[in-house]
Design a protein that fits this description.
Layout: E1 2-7, H1 11-26, E2 30-31, E3 39-44, H2 49-65, E4 70-75, H3 76-81, E5 92-94, H4 102-112, E6 116-118, E7 139-143, E8 145-146, H5 157-161, E9 165-166, H6 169-181, E10 186-190, E11 198-199, E12 202-203, H7 204-211, E13 219-222, H8 232-240, E14 247-249, H9 257-263, H10 269-282, E15 287-294, H11 301-314, E16 318-323, H12 341-364, E17 370-379, E18 382-387, E19 392-396, E20 406-414, E21 417-422
Parallel strand pairs: 1-2, 1-3, 3-4, 4-5, 5-6, 7-10, 10-13, 14-15, 15-16, 19-21
Antiparallel strand pairs: 8-9, 11-12, 17-18, 17-20, 18-19, 20-21
Length: 423
């Protein structure tokens, strides 16, 4: 039987989709196409209302276009909003537990010919042991942690993913070693709250310290980390390790202390700026990208301008901008002074324009310099990929160089790429 997996949302979902793909292939199933498969798995996202709608749209389309196929809905939207699937006729409905047992669920469905719904209370589960032998991208993701206990006032994810739990350290090392031996030059550590990794007496720093020693690992990237989790020990590791890349993603969410407090974030803008300055003292050219939510309830024009001022002081290299999206069941739902859609759209556009300016300024620092990059895609005669500091590079080259770190001379900006030539 042929299968096809739709993946919506974050890197953790991408990793878990790869786990399901691996298990299916190892059990004799064949990877099919979007148009011709017997099994369709939709790995859903619920981070915003828009995410719910996208997930639901994909599920309905699969049911409409492939009525004879086995349809499986899994993941975050299913975990917190399974009622949206009621009476749709989805074959198998799972939350965020037991994705690694997808083959068993399919077997059960094929034997009994009855729809299955299995959604457990996510708050009490242990870390689900998953391990990849290979990954379908040049940069391999490794999930080391699940769950979040920050309870930011706008966020539903703690209810979708449960409490913080971490992978056994030696299993992380073994998985990364296997992936490196399979030819992956770069590993991306992922989790719902990656920097909160803590397994018994092994902290996130302790784990990083061991990972960077793995033979053959050229690059280690942290998918996202909170500013409060970048300890002095981690900064020192950035100082001494060439394996940790020159890029880190640190969510700001707002540059206004008043809004940060309403969001229930665990820092103020002064602390954020001080820690960034300290990080840049050990890695002067590091690319720091971020997330910002605009139009949070109570965000006046003055407070929005305060966020712009904070962003300019920090000098990010890129901003991922999100309009505030109301999530039922969160504290933000109860807050007064919600912002109208027109104002949110204008503020989003303003920050996207600022992000492009900051990105081009950062790119310009590297024109006429030599850097190494990892080609991930071959298209129209060009190798396309990223440098360690996450610049997007485009060079004429041979397809055989895919997934091999190569040297390139930066020539010019063709946004969003830097065009270069191989050395």
């Amino acid at each position: 039987m042929k299968f096809y997996i739709y993946t919506l949302g974050c890197k953790v979902n991408t990793y878990e989709s790869n786990i399901m793909r691996d298990n299916l292939l190892n059990s004799g199933y064949i990877e099919g196409s979007i148009d011709n498969s017997d099994i369709y798995i939709i790995n859903t996202c619920t981070v915003t209302n828009t995410s719910d709608n996208k997930s639901l749209k994909v599920i309905r389309r699969v049911l409409r276009e492939h009525p004879e196929a086995i349809t499986i809905a899994v993941g975050c939207m299913v975990q917190v909003n399974s009622e949206l699937l009621k009476d749709l006729g989805v074959s198998i409905v799972l939350g965020n537990k037991d994705k690694s047992k997808i083959v068993d669920y399919i077997k059960q469905y094929k034997i009994n010919k009855r729809n299955i719904t299995d959604i457990v209370d996510i708050m009490g589960v242990e870390f689900e042991d998953m391990c990849l032998n290979n990954f379908n991208k040049a940069r391999a993701f490794v999930k080391i942690e699940d769950g979040c206990e920050n309870y930011c006032s706008y966020c539903i994810i703690p209810y979708a993913r449960g409490k913080v739990r971490s992978k056994v350290p030696h299993k992380v090392i073994e998985e990364i070693t296997t992936l490196v031996n399979q030819g992956h030059r770069e590993i991306v550590l992922t989790g719902i709250h990656t920097g909160h990794y803590n397994y018994k007496d092994c902290s996130f720093y302790d784990l990083l310290k061991e990972i960077v020693k793995i033979d053959g690992l050229k690059r280690l990237r942290i998918s996202s980390i909170e500013i409060t989790e970048i300890t002095d020990d981690i900064m020192n590791l950035f100082k001494i390790s060439e394996v940790l890349v020159d890029h880190i993603h640190i969510p700001l969410q707002s540059g206004s202390n008043k809004i940060l407090k309403l969001m229930n974030r665990k820092y103020d803008k002064e602390y954020f700026i001080e820690r960034i300055n300290k990080l840049r003292s050990v890695r002067p050219d590091i690319s720091i990208t971020t997330d910002v939510i605009v139009g949070f309830p109570g965000e006046t024009e003055e407070l929005f301008n305060e966020t712009i001022d904070t962003i300019k002081k920090i000098n990010f290299s890129k901003i991922h901008v999100f309009p505030f999206s109301l999530r039922k069941g969160t504290k933000a739902e109860e807050l007064p002074n919600h912002i109208d859609g027109t104002t949110k759209k204008r503020r989003v556009k303003e920050l996207i324009n600022l992000s492009k300016e900051l990105e081009i300024d950062y790119m310009n620092k590297f024109i006429d310099k030599e850097m190494s990059f990892l080609p991930e895609i071959y298209k129209d005669g060009y190798l396309i990929g990223h440098t360690g500091n996450y610049l997007q590079i485009k060079v004429k080259g041979d397809i055989q160089l895919l997934n091999e770190i190569v040297e390139v001379e930066m020539e010019r900006i063709d946004y969003p790429y830097i065009v270069g030539k191989l050395i």
